[in-house]
Amino acid sequence: MKRKHQVQFENLIDEIVNSSGSVHLPTVLLKVTPGGGKSMIPIIAGKLITHHFAKGLCWISPRKSLQSQGESNFLDPRFREMFGHDLSIRSSTNDTDPCRDLDGFITTYQAISQDDERSVEGEFTRRGMILVLDEFHHVEQGGVWHKALEPLVRLCSFLVLMSGTLERGDGNRIAFIPYTEGEKGLEPDLRTTDNFHVIDYSRTDALEEKAIIPLHFTFHDGSATWENDMGTKINVSSLANVKREDNAAAVYTALSTEYSQELLRLAVNHWQNHRMKNPRAKLLVITANKTHADNAIDLLKRAGFNAEIATSHASEEAHRAILNYKLDRIDILVTIAMAYEGLDVPAITHEVVLTHIRSTPWIEQMLARANRVDPAAGPYESQRAYIFAPDDPVFRKVVERIRAEQLPYVSANKQMELFEDPAPAAPREKECWMCDFYETEHCMGFGWSGEICDQFKNEYNPLGIKPLASSLSGQRDLDFTAGKISEYRPVQKTPKQQEEELRKKIENHVRLYSFNNRHQDGEINRQIYMKFQKARAVMTIPELQTVLDHVEKEYPLNKIVRGTGRRTTTKVTPWEGSIPVYGK
Asked: Which candidate, 498, 502, 492, places its Cα nearest to that of 549?
């Protein structure tokens, strides 16, 4: 069934076709909620080729992985029957003759920006082209991509702009659209004029048409401890109540230490139980950097799960992993962001948010990976997307915005108030053409000059902090169909899990202290044994907690010799009192 925005766009194209050229071809902006089905729009625009109003179509996407998907959409028998077309396009990367006797081609913004031979511009000069800019919010006004696209926009016979998130994480303007002064400053002007036609398809519209499924959030609270760049140890007992200035550091710490493992474990358990009802269900794990992604895939594979990783650090393997995920060869995909935008796998039912990125458009696109309707998963009413995420105020603020768009599905007496305003997103100085994160302050890739960008150099410590420890303490659920948020439920850990967690905290503390002060951690471990006269492997939970308290007091992590240039003995200072020292 065609969706409202598709029908509106098709009616506009039919009006142009039936006018025999008397109707002006305006720029068309489609603001379509992520998952709403805007990938059909280029196919509908192709009717102008069939009726000789244009000679070809150029579709530009933000990611290489979306090119093959675009090609496939044109060949899909369902869409050919639905829209009555027989058009075909091909993937191209600045090829000579990019159409190759077909009806058009699909390329990327990165490729256009590096088209030194101007092969694409030459194609636009030779023939009247429809230009479709997909997720064009990536194109910053005055930026490199804007300058590369300007000749194509000037030469095209029909311009179509599509986006699911009409804002940028850096707060800068988006190219090719007008702006007006609003309550919060400059904002896109979405009024339709003679030369600028706007079609809006909201989350509410998509839910009413059963084009997407509702979201169910499980927020997880926890504690976090880290050292800032001054060597000061900071501890927060609750992510849910963390101060604005500590939000990023607390979440990054949690996702770099024990908390992330526990969050992943809880999500996997829920997903496994859900698969008893829906065997098709898939799990998507989103991390912030390569280290976190490697840790997650290692945990999953050691547990025996059929999982693969997809990051831009290994492009060919990543595209193969995404294909395996789509073809049901694997059940779990771990990614940084390579697969988040445009990934269309209706079987995804669960997402685990193991990233500290808090850009609103990025989060909305990420969450949309799980809101597809799966025709093979049973009745629409039985389908739900489950999101497992940290319970920090900034993330919850984005969720509140999504909730507000779904209020027509929630009765007035079930409305809830959510949380304080987040801190503004940090500004971006530039975009990276090979970067997984076009919209956030955190970047992983190469700058326009081809050099490794600063954020990539700091991938393993982007905030300049030293994560020490964390733990997951409780969870609460937000179901948009129920319209309420539950009270906190403590997460019950088994005694064995508590023992393992305490032993891990002691081990990590000893290793970090030893590294900072040029000691051998084996020497400290021997002293701990001499102090308590019992191996940690056989200690009870209270005994392990006593050891942890002792270690944190006697070996403070704010005592750091390494990097100061001071000379020091590598021998650990003996205990005071009558406790014997090893070797004496």
From this structure: 502
